[in-house]
Each structure stands twice: as C-alpha cells, then as structure tokens.
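User:
I would dearly like some help making sense of a protein record. Take your time, and here it is.
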Amino acid sequence: MKKDIEIPIAKEVFVAIVHEWNDDFLSKDWNAYVINNRNTPIDMVLIVSKGYDKDKKTSTMRHGKGLVGAKSYEKIEMVQEDVLALDNEFFVTFFANDVLYERRFLFEKNTVNEQNLITIPLIDKEGVLAK
C-alpha cells in the first residue's frame, strides 16, 4: 500500500542562507529563506529545520509560512554562526495545484561562509543555496 502513495519532488523551490545587514544589531547576520521560483504560488508551506553532527544537535524548529507567492520568497529564521559548524537540514513541505510536494535541503557543515557566497536569485543578495 505504501508503494501506491506518490509524493513528487519539489522543483523550482529552494532554501538559501543569506548574509545580510541587520539594522537592529548593526551587524551582518545569516538568515534562512524559502524561495519559490515557480510561476504559481505554493500554499501551506511548512519547514522543519535542525542542525546536527555526531556529537551535537540543535532543537528542531517548525515554521508555517502559509502562502508563498509565485517568484517570491519568505524568511524562515536567523541562523547563528555556531550552528553553521553543523550540518543544517531544512525539510520543506507544501501544496501546489492541489498536490503535496516535499523536499529535503542540506547545508553541509562549514559550507555556509563568505568564500562560498553567490548572488541568490529573486532575493538579489549574497548567500549560499542548499543542496
């Protein structure tokens, strides 16, 4: 019976960690974003995030973003520098055209850093895209 359930892989939806200026703290922070590069909105967006390695793990965080419009993005959470030394996983689930989609995004430990920055599409800021 389980083999009869199909959950398609999410395409044109991404997670990025962006290095951006924080006016409140007058510093550059790392912030995670979900990016919808589809031509249609995605709905009931749920994101579960956690950091881990062999010896340590962070709390599991759950975020509900509701609707993310076509060709747009939403901030998920701020990511502390200490957590970037761990593998960071973001599991994204959403509905589009009445179909449930899911995808796991991974930032391997120590890959989110200033040497790996690229310009993130739609956000137009420097950051790192998840695998």
